[in-house]
Amino acid sequence: NAGVMQNPRHLVRRRGQEARLRCSPMKGHSHVYWYRQLPEEGLKFMVYLQKENIIDESGMPKERFSAEFPKEGPSILRIQQVVRGDSAAYFCASSPRDANEKLFFGSGTQLSVL
Amino acid sequence: KQEVTQIPAALSVPEGENLVLNCSFTDSAIYNLQWFRQDPGKGLTSLLLIQSSQREQTSGRLNASLDKSSGRSTLYIAASQPGDSATYLCAFKDSGSRLTFGEGTQLTVNP
């Protein structure tokens, strides 16, 4: 039973480009969470999704960021027109039923914006 | 706004020592609290989860306690080993969907 899979592990983008980060939850998990870890800061919640639904996006920046978790395929975190301040580690987590259970985290995607 | 504080920020101990990591939170409306381990370049590994109705949880050499009235949790590591070297994070959860993380304690266990 594979864990939470994130790809790519490292992503380099120039300012103004788009970044797409992918997350496949653990088998049997239908709840996905995205967290961001900025340099020298703790992890901060971004968004919570179930299949085809955004449940809580209160941690998402108002512009340029979007997330989806389609019926088929991985969850995608999309950042449009990246800026240097978007450079961070982006972690995905999943749980079987809801946010009250133990979360299982992926290894993260390190985004570097040049 | 919930704040989670971890003390100390860094800790270096010799192998075999017992140690305690501290986590404090400002919001008493806790649902559960989790302790994670983060290794460089890797994701987070959940170590222990304590529900608000519980006072402690144990797994092997690890023991986590929760005191809601004082807003504190501790992670006790017995007989530390070099393989325990990592950053330890505590995360508070209220009735919503998000975890609020502390900034972690970076532990180094020297052989």
Characterise this structure.
- With 114 residues, chain A is mainly β.
- Chain A has strands at residues 5-7, 10-13, 19-24, 31-37, 43-50, 53-56, 65-68, 75-79, 88-95, 104-105, 109-113.
- The termini of chain A are far apart.
- Chain B has strands at 4-7, 10-14, 19-25, 32-38, 44-51, 56-59, 62-67, 72-77, 86-93, 99-101, 105-110.
- Chain B is built from no helices and eleven strands.
- In chain B, the strands form two sheets. In chain B, strands 2, 4, 5, 9, 10 and 11 form a six-stranded mixed sheet that branches. Chain B has a five-stranded antiparallel sheet with strand order 1-3-8-7-6, with no helix packed on it.
- Chain B is mainly β and 111 residues long.
- Classes of the chains: A mainly beta (114), B mainly beta (111).
- The interface between A and B is medium-sized, with 26 and 24 residues.
Helix-strand pattern of chain B: EEEEEEEEEEE
Main structural class of chain A = mainly beta
End-to-end CA span of chain A: 36 Å
Overall helicity of chain B: under 10%
Please provide the count of β strands of chain A. Answer: 11
| Unreliable parts of chain A | none
Mean pLDDT of chain B: 93
C-alpha-based Rg of chain A, rounded = 13 Å
Strand content of chain B: over 45%
Proportion in helices of chain A: under 10%
Coarse shape of chain B: globular
**SSE order of chain A, as H and E?**
EEEEEEEEEEE
Topology:
The complex is a heterodimer of chains A (about 110) and B (about 110).
Chain A: E1 5-7, E2 10-13, E3 19-24, E4 31-37, E5 43-50, E6 53-56, E7 65-68, E8 75-79, E9 88-95, E10 104-105, E11 109-113
Parallel strand pairs in A: 2-11
Antiparallel strand pairs in A: 1-3, 3-8, 4-5, 4-9, 5-6, 7-8, 9-10, 9-11
Chain B: E1 4-7, E2 10-14, E3 19-25, E4 32-38, E5 44-51, E6 56-59, E7 62-67, E8 72-77, E9 86-93, E10 99-101, E11 105-110
Parallel strand pairs in B: 2-11
Antiparallel strand pairs in B: 1-3, 3-8, 4-5, 4-9, 6-7, 7-8, 9-10, 9-11
